[in-house]
Amino acid sequence: MTETDPEYGSLWEYRRRVGDMSQHVRAVGTSEASWNQWRSERDDLFRSHPDSPIPKEQRSGFAGLPFSNYAQAWNVDATLEEFSPSPAGLVNSGDGSTHSLRIGEVVGNSPNGPFSLAAFWMNDYGGGIFIPFRDETNGTGTYGGGRYLLDSAKGADLGTHDGRVVLDFNFAYHPSCVHDSRWSCPLAPQESLLNFAVPVGERLRHSG
User: How many Å is the maximal CA-CA distance in the chain?
Assistant: First the structure.
């Protein structure tokens, strides 16, 4: 994600706080309680931090990000199946694309059926695993460009459990460009499309 002329020290602190929130969840485990704390801390960050993706003029009235109710069944573990990396240019919401490698896929089971999602290694931001997704709620209840499950370059990573990747869809969140077009964010590609709805995670405000 990019922004014109950021205050780098402030942006560094913002990203550290994002990472700290996920670090706490990894330490205590994914649950409704840790999700509630993560949401509360994230809302405070969006409301008060100078590098919040919420436009400055909207922060004083910011009431929190809309999420569906927590559903334990959508807290799943998945297997990372790696294969020979191939270049992947993820189209951005703004101009250009984000350079990455498709390094495999995560495979698991959800309440609405089995899934496989492309796993990318981000060449930008110093590297990191990135797993976005699209689903049948896009364009109505959620952003048309998809949501993010894991972005380790930003510290948004719920960890592993018994060698499997923790993918709690309740923690799925929108990219910053949803809140302000000054941000340019990588969008979920076709390889990240699920053929069912994911009824949990962050929602669009108008969707209720």
Answer: 48
Residue 13 falls inside a structural domain: no
- Render pLDDT for 10-19 as a digit per residue (tens, 0 to 9): 888 888 899 8
Residues contacting residue 16 through CB under 8 Å, at least 6 positions apart: 155
Tokens of 46: 């969006």
Sign of dihedral through CA atoms 176, 178, 182, 185?
positive
Locate 29 and state its tokens.
């485990």
pLDDT tens, 184-196?
Answer: 999 999 999 999 9
Report whether 143 contacts 166 (CB < 8 A): no
Whether 34 is covered by a domain: the verdict is: no
DSSP per-residue codes, 145-207? T-EEEEEGGGTB---EETTEEEEEGGG-B--GGGT-TTS--BPP-GGGB-SS----SB--GGG
What is the total residue count of the chain? Answer: 208
Token pair belonging to 183:
């941000």
> What total of structural domains would you count in the chain?
1
